[in-house]
Amino acid sequence: MEKESRILILIVEDEDYIVRVLQDNLAPRGCLIDVVRDGQKAVEYLKEHAAPDLILLDLLMPNRDGFYVLQQVKENEKWKDIPVFVLSNLGETADVHRAMELGANDYFVKSHNTILEVVNRAMNILETKKSPSAAEEKK
Predict the structure, then answer these.
(1) What is the pLDDT of residues 73-98, one digit of tens each?
(2) pLDDT tens-digit readout, 2-39
(3) Which pLDDT value is given to residue 4?
(4) CA–CA distance from 134 to each of 31, 43, 65, 128, 139 (Å)?
(5) Are 126 and 135 in contact (CB under 8 A)?
(6) pTM of the entire structure?
(7) pLDDT, tens digit, 9 for 90 and up, residues 106-122
(8) Separation between Cα atoms, residue 33 and residue 46, nearest integer Å
(9) How many CB atoms lie within 10 A of CB 75?
(10) Residue 122: CB atoms within 10 Å
């Protein structure tokens, strides 16, 4: 059996509590976590590091907002296939619609979804991404 590589998740979030809870729930599942706390640093991170397997992205942050980051990710040939989950306090239909149109893979309103829901969904999409033939094997 081949050794499984570690999953790298980039958390783009300026709220310390949210960062800590995400780290506490993802690290025990074998994930490596990198954190940046504003939108401009997120884009710089992507330019300077290997692409993460998943981005967890807040929308309301200093310097550049999450919509800007999402647009940069999805318009860049090297990054466009990185799944992006938006975690935001913005729950208006227009905000959700805008994020999904820009290419978000999922959208979680912080006050309506638990961290466990986010983590489970993240692990599910990462499992599917790592082994696309898994669905075929189950048939």
Answers:
(1) 999 999 999 999 999 999 999 999 99
(2) 445 689 999 999 999 999 999 999 999 999 999 999 99
(3) 52
(4) 20, 32, 36, 7, 9
(5) no
(6) 0.89
(7) 999 999 999 999 999 99
(8) 14
(9) 11
(10) 25
What is the spatial distance between Cα 59 and Cα 41, in angstroms, rounded to a whole number? 14
Structural domains for the chain: 7-95+103-134 (3.40.50.2300)
Closest CA to 85 of 117, 111, 38, 128: 117
* DSSP for residue 51: P
CA 116 to chain centre: 14
- Calculate ∠ Cα 48-30-34, nearest 5°: 25
80 close to 74: Cβ distance less than 8 angstroms: yes
* Chain Cα centroid distance, residue 133: 23
φ/ψ bin of 53: left (φ > 0), alpha (ψ from -120 to 50), beta (otherwise): alpha
Q: Residue 100 in 3-state DSSP?
A: helix
Q: Which tokens belong to 24?
A: 């506490």
> DSSP letters of 59-78?
SS-SSS-HHHHHHHHHHSTT
